[in-house]
Amino acid sequence: MNDSTHKHLAVRTVYGLLSAILLALFALSVCGETIPVNEGAGFDGEFYREVFRNFSADFFATGYDSFRIQRIFPFCLMNVVYNLAGIPLDNAHMMAGMYVLHFVNLALQLLLFFKLARLQGWKPATTVVLFSLFFFNYATLKNCGYVPFQTDAFAVTVALASYYAILKGREASGFALSLLGLVTWPTLTYVMTLLLLFPLRPGVSKSAGALPELFEKPVPKFFLVLPFVYGLAAGTLVILFHVMHKQEILDNLLMGNFGTGHIIFCLIAFSGCAWVIALLRKVPGIPYSAVDFARSFRPRVFIGIVLCIAAVSLLLRMHTNNDYFFDGKVFLLQVLIRPLKYPLVTLAGHVVYWGALPAFLVLFARDFVKVSTARSPGHTLVLLAFLFFALDSESRHIAPFLPLLLVPLGHALDKADPAPKFAIFTVILQLVLSHFYIPINVDGFSESLEAGKFLTPEAQRHFMNYGPWMTGSSYRDWIAVAIAALIGTNEVFKRSKRPQSGK
Fold first, then answer.
1. 63-77, pLDDT tens digit by residue?
2. What is the DSSP letter of 499?
């Protein structure tokens, strides 16, 4: 056996070991505790369990509200499967079905991840790091088993499958898969649409010469200006709430009553830190002008996409009732205002849910942004959309973007050439940060939920994982962990860097 074959076998063994660890930990999650509300369905999950039970009747008879009808795909699929197989639609059988579906979903994610790794040609250490960031986190190792009636994990899979197809050049297949997002997590459909509408086309960088010079220039300082744009937008909203005497709405968005001085400090801290990161990490700007975006736009593709989305939307509207659940406009306000609850609460929220992912995005920000924007104007728009949704400390809302972060981060890591010891460190760090091993259903937890007291120490074992629900105590714990993870990752990476040839 030559050295090349031996190395290849060793790499495959490592990948197999990581996959086995993932499946074992996922099995522990599935066989472990579930939220003690509505027999494991949870709060919002009770609705989706009823979709699982009665979709074939309710969809045509009563329909669903306009918000949740966009998230019914996994559950209506299981309803059809159960009806065809003649499986009883009682709570126990449905819970078992959701666990099986989550296992199948995870297997698909594993398959697609390694196919993407092969397509991108990532180095083994890079692949191990990305595997850890993608799979070894609270979202996968705990949330799927604890609250199984959610669409988050399935949205990640649909996004990964759609993006992989687009990268392979199968745009029609990629878009067809993304249409599932309209009944799973609509954001992912529109994200893939941006990629298809604004590809990197020959001649994009050529000057038009007929428009004002402003429209033909790229924006090299964009990410240095962006924090101030956010600060201005969020600050303006806060002022408007005060001027219009809508303090109650502001308190509801922040999920607490905070003084003006506190909010101003949080605004300055968030915007200032974002600016410092962009400055110190030397984050490049946007290499395209307004003319470049216009030239890359594909009108015929746009017409086709609009017709397809309109057809699916019309079908859903035909089965939408007048019940109110949530307004998407409120969500946009939440995204802008939530970073003002605590200083850098967004960072804490992302670390508690995804682990060290935000630390990696900060440390490799320069190459991550450079690769993202260089791929196409569409990827640039997706990056901007990601940054907007990432403002929200309820980190599960960036789930559809997760697969699209892998490619530019993979290129950045390949360039940095991480040592095997750094990859091992990342695996261990992610497993520790995922806190899957910390029980949630402790004494007093059920009682807190039944009483609607979500801020008790017992209830925080669950609700701290959703940023805006953090108490001050939970926030302080996790912001300390987040800062330690950022510093630790940076130090270990610097100390484990391979020696450069010729030095």
1. 999 999 999 999 999
2. P
